[in-house]
Amino acid sequence: MIKIIIIAVFLVILFSLGSALFHLVKHKGDKGPSPEVVKALTVRIALSLLLFVIVFILVATGVFRPQGIGSKLHAQINSTQSNKSLPTE
After folding, report:
1. Residue 86, Cα to own-chain centre: how many angstroms?
2. Of 8, 45, 54, 76, whose CB neighbour count within 10 A is largest?
3. How far apart are CA 28 and CA 41, in angstroms?
4. Helical packing angle, 35-61 and 2-26, nearest 10°
5. pLDDT per position as a tens digit, 26-51
6. Are 63 and 2 in contact (CB under 8 A)?
7. Side-chain half-sphere exposure of 77, counting CA atoms within 13 A
8. pLDDT at 47
9. How many structural domains does the chain have?
10. What's the domain range around 75?
11. ∠ at Cα 12 (7, 18), nearest 5°?
12. Are 55 and 6 a contacting pair, CB within 8 Å?
């Protein structure tokens, strides 16, 4: 369910970017950016920041686990540090 929400927000971000492009091309001869372009880009930036914060919170709480090179290196570092802290007999 959470993945669907994240994908939906990402698609809205892409739609907002496309809307800004459309209005930029439509009002090409005008002086300065049109209000529609500014509004669409503001919405895109706000949604991008919101999506970043949501993903950061989900990773911090453990709902999402990063998968890839960075997470494998992090797991290896944690396992070697925990082995060093164990007392040896």
Report:
1. 38
2. 54
3. 16
4. 160
5. 888 777 778 899 999 999 999 999 99
6. yes
7. 6
8. 95
9. 1
10. 2-85
11. 130
12. yes
